[in-house]
Amino acid sequence: MNSMLTHEHLLTRIVLLIILISCTLVNVVELTRRRSHEKNIKLF
C-alpha cells in the first residue's frame, strides 16, 4: 500500500513537471516569434 502511494506521488510530480516544461517552452516560442516579427518590421 505504501509503495503504491509513493508511485502515485511520483506520477503526479512527473505530470506537474511536464506541464511546467511545456508552459515554459510555449513562452519561449512566443518570445522568439515576437522578436523575429519585430526584426522583420524593423527590416521593412
Automatic annotation (TrEMBL):
The chain crosses the membrane at residues 12-32. Keywords: Membrane, Transmembrane, Transmembrane helix. It comes from the Eukaryota. This is Hypotheticial protein.
